[in-house]
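B., you asked whether I could sanity-check this one before it goes into the benchmark set. Here's the sequence:
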Amino acid sequence: MKPYSALYYVKENKGRSLLIAVMFFLTTLLLLGGNYIRSNYYYWEGIIDFTERAIEVEASVNDQDEEFRDYFALVDKLSNDPDLTVMLHSGYAEPSMDWTCTMGFTMGGYAARFNTAEDMREAFRIVGYHGDFSNLKNGSLAISKAMANNKGLKLGDIVDESMGLMGTYTLDALIDEDTYAVFYVEEYPKDKLTRAHVLSETLSYSELMERVKTLCEGTQCKIQKSWRDDLNAQFEPINLIFYLALILLSLVLAVSVNSVISGHYNKRTYEFGIYRAIGRTKRDVRRKVAAEIAITDIVSVVVGLGFVELLTFMMNELYYKPGGRFLPYWSEIGVVGLIVSNICVLVPTILLRGRAMCKADVTEF
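And here's what the prediction gave me:
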């Protein structure tokens, strides 16, 4: 290995390089921070998926149509479409249960009611939920295993107003998939069935929504849209706060790293002055400085990523999963945070140190 090479210097000066590496290591923690922000979406992904597989149509309250003839005429049209499966249920509000998210605060959202156990089983089959649904009956409640762990519930438990519900139900089924929706079986007379789940085994969400909209034309019935856009809008402020924190932290890290590396390279002014005296060009000097800093950064980031992933795995297996929660291993916002922070620290450091070392002149010593 040639003494002039960047790797040689890093290898022979492990102590100083380690100090710099620790500073770059801190940028990988932005991935962990972004993953925590992204974990908020995790609890809603199953809910969004269900609302896009089972579109809800609701009768419009209208004094001139107290018997909901307009709505039931629409139900007939939907039921006659061979691509659609229609399940009527009560128009009464379905209370959901809240849960504790990965970041520690309480969230709560979606609930769906079915008029019969057969309807719920068929809906679960179409949506793709798995589990033992044989005990479903009138008065049954079904939630995911993850949500049951989150709430400290088990099969056979009685769930009532103490958990925010508007009645008493028995937890008779656990869904394998991680959805945080609450599903009821509650039978009502036919004249009370003023809502309907519309599902399809062959149509995508956009195709299903377009079909339902087409059939709903000319009626006053309401169509529930996917929660995706609304939730994205609600989480935008949290994302904005993260990016603002990212910028501030990157600036602090950039100043700190530059300060540490500045002292490190100032002690090497004589060394770079000799390089210039023996004919090394400014481009050579800049390349050497860039290579030394880049090698340190790459090693730091690789080690940092390994640390973050191992830490995430341990937290999930030992703490979060047993409590029905989850911390993502990767996330778009976390990766963006890592890349932006690393670039904000790395690029100015390379430019400033390379420029400073190019000014070293052996004749001044």
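One thing to flag: Residues 228-266 form the longest helix (39 residues). Otherwise nothing jumped out at me.
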